[in-house]
Amino acid sequence: MKKRAVIALGHRALGTTLPEQKIAVAKTAKSIADLIEEGYQVAITHSNAPQVGMIHTAMNEFGKTHDNYTSAPMSVCSAMSQGYIGYDLQNGIREELLNRGIYRTVSTVLTQVIVDPYDEAFYTPTKVLGRYMNAEDANEERKKGNYVVEEPGKGFRRVVSAPNPIKIVELDAVNALLNADQLVIACGGGGIPVLEQDNHLRGASAVIEKDLAAGKLAEGVNADLLIILTSVDQVCINMGTPAEEKLGSISVAQAKEYMDAGHFGTYNMFPKFKAAVEFIEQKEGREALITSLDQLKAGLHGKAGTRIHG
Asked: I need a labelling partner for 64 at 20 to 30 A (CA). Which of 82, 168, 176, 304 fits?
């Protein structure tokens, strides 16, 4: 059987604006095609921070200037970003594969992820997004029950919660496509956060940390390898000190020690290592690779990146 990999694309693999995304995806598609040529079945997830912020801003401005239209909730903006990014990704990857003589269907699955309504993250929002507002607009947001934060000299911005992913709703569909040897793009932006109420799913005003969702996806499809792409070729500890050290191949036990020692901060590398450790601990023989897009191919052969094993 083929090995199965889940790859989480970071911001640099996608760009920010529409033209940037087109250019970035063409480069990213080459790395995905390399994975296919290495014999992997591949599921892809991706960040969406600039894109969902752009969509959120556009929809809110549209609602303000057009009667009978309302601003779009975060869950709807997240769904829009999945479709917009998935559209470019699946076409870029399809084209690159065909250029190499490989025919493989590439599909985007609009993916919902259930979160816990009592997750502590709902009481301490941390993810800033969207346009800058003046004090009057910020007060209007507060009246709606939304959180805002002031950035000195710039204005106010919306801030939303980042709860942990509990369950991927469309996981069976993702597995069916992978079992048919197709490429799947799923859980984009961490997935659309939803609250489960009996048989009803209600969108949550939140975003999900994409790396944790990638780990949940990798676990759900029984992947052999979780790949998390970031801005650095290799993770370091003791950054900016004489004791700075690059991490090559490390065990889960070592990764936990570094996490407990506070080497990875709260919002940067920590979620990546948390996702990797939780994924690997679920089953023997699994590994995770954290590296940059440029070093992915070398990382697959143990020549670059930070590799975590059981």
From this structure: 82
